[in-house]
# Entry
Amino acid sequence: MTYVRGSAKRPDPSRSPARQAGVLAVILKGTLAGAAGPPPENPSVPGAGPMIHPSDPPSAPPTPPVVSARDLTKRFSGTLAVDGLSFDVGAGEIYGLMGPNGAGKTTTIAMLLDLITPTSGEIRILGETYPKGRERILSRVNFSSTYVSLPLRLTVWENLRVFAALYGVRRPRERIRELLERFEIEATAGKRVGDLSSGQKTRVYLAKALLNEPAILFLDEPTASLDPDIADKTRGILRDIRREQGATVVITSHNMAEMESLCDRILFIERGRRLVEGPPREILERFGRATLEEVFLQVARREREPA
# Structure
């Protein structure tokens, strides 16, 4: 499916658990629809080598792609937030989206989840396209963000029980107990989400995201509010579900050490455009830097220079 501004209104898909999950996801989308600032001209960053043009083909993933984006573009009232992004994510790959605030990372994830409609471009997930395959896609993916809350007046157990029903999870009680134990938050089950610490909330959101054993897991800053010990354990869980379930993970984070150690490949986005893509080691070599943090600082500080 290719999205073009002014296309016909989408037909309403039939009501189903997957559709209900999608509706609830839209209600809970929080800040996902935030727009990035308009991108000016994008000359090469010093030391980065030649720029990748937005129309260049994406690098090949190590396995057959389960997420594909072609010329993905999003405008908000004249502001260009995402500008012609193209990339593929392979099955079982941990793929990072990296860039300064306002680069377009969260907007890109929102489009991949069909929470906002691209101005133009093409998205294909698990061989399906929106809107025709929306129910089938949503039943096999999930999402978590530190910045998107669950209903605060419901208890942890009530929240997870609702989502388990929406996703048609078999043996939901056992699945919820398993995830609470895995994230070391069993004691929070009877507490209201609004009464939890930020770190506890983050782990509840991650538990929600794993309820349906998703084929693709979209994570927006998943460890931002976690202490170093729990963050490290969470990264271990992500590696485990990749190994155990063959799950694909698409992740954004400003923890550069985390991205460097966790991701198979990274797409660095600058002002809504694809700057560089590849394994972390290749990106370091291309920029002539020792760490991804040095790469990030080089690009971010260049962005803030006056025109």
